[in-house]
């Protein structure tokens, strides 16, 4: 907050980790959709298809894919020529803010290419998530009792909530019409997407943990009882 400059290498590193974590998050949400599909549509084969070893392999693939995508896009962006102002109108080295500082004939094509890669990866993961939920909903509708349908669907609520939040803010950043938002609003949306969404994820998923909910309730009861006394 006091030293508002950043070196070229540090800026590239910051962008690499931003891309890596963003893509990895999307890949993990896709894998979690597959996990819900297997649990609901093939419950008898769940322990075989989603063994601890298989889960570790899938998570490793998510991190590897996110790292490769992050490295590729970061190298492409930082091979551009930057001239003129070196003031980034953002709270961090965000790709769209940085591309505005680049110059040269290839800048427009690189900008379009980066946006297309990000949108394709995000929409590809979203398509597979939606596809998994098509099969999940079909399997839930075949459950005879309403209580059974509600109980089964409730296991997907946390994941669906994170998917809606994650892709909602991502669409505002990458799919919004050009020039429809001010620079400050773009920075605010990017901050929400990169900070607020990952912060919410563990909280939302933890709310289904009965032990955690009971601990939170006990904590609130003790706090209110101490205040009232």
From TrEMBL:
Membrane topology: Multi-pass membrane protein
GO molecular-function term, one example from the UniProt record: olfactory receptor activity
Transmembrane segments: 6-34, 55-80, 114-141, 153-175, 187-207
Gene3D superfamilies named among the record's database cross-references: Rhodopsin 7-helix transmembrane proteins (1.20.1070.10)
Entry GO terms, CC: plasma membrane
Name used for this protein in its record: G-protein coupled receptors family 1 profile domain-containing protein
Compartments reported by the entry: Cell membrane
Organism from which the protein derives: Muntiacus muntjak
Entries under InterPro entries matching the protein: GPCR_Rhodpsn_7TM (IPR017452), Olfact_rcpt (IPR000725)
Record keywords: Cell membrane, G-protein coupled receptor, Membrane, Receptor, Sensory transduction, Transducer, Transmembrane, Transmembrane helix
Keyword presence, S-adenosyl-L-methionine: no
Domain G-protein coupled receptors family 1 profile span(s) in chain numbering: 1-205
Xref: Pfam families: 7tm_4
């Amino acid at each position: 907050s006091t030293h508002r400059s950043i070196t070229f290498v540090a800026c590239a590193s910051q962008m690499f980790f931003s891309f890596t974590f963003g893509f990895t998050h999307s890949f993990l949400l896709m894998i979690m959709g597959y996990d819900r599909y297997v649990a609901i549509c093939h419950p008898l084969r769940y322990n075989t298809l989603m063994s601890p070893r298989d889960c570790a392999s899938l998570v490793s693939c998510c991190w590897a894919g996110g790292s490769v995508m992050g490295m590729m896009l970061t190298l492409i962006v930082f091979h551009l020529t930057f001239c003129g102002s070196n003031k980034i109108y953002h709270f961090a080295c965000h790709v769209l803010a940085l591309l505005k500082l680049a110059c040269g004939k290839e800048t427009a094509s690189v900008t379009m290419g980066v946006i297309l890669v990000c949108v394709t990866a995000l929409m590809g993961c979203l398509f597979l998530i939606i596809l998994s939920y098509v099969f999940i909903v079909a399997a839930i509708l075949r459950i005879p009792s309403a209580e059974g349908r509600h109980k089964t669907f409730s296991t997907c609520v946390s994941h669906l909530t994170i998917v809606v939040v994650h892709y909602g803010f991502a669409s505002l950043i990458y799919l919004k019409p050009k020039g429809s938002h001010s620079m400050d609003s773009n920075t605010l949306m990017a901050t929400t997407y990169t900070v607020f969404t990952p912060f919410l994820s563990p909280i939302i998923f933890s709310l289904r943990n009965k032990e955690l909910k009971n601990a939170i309730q006990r904590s609130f009861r003790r706090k209110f009882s101490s205040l009232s006394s």
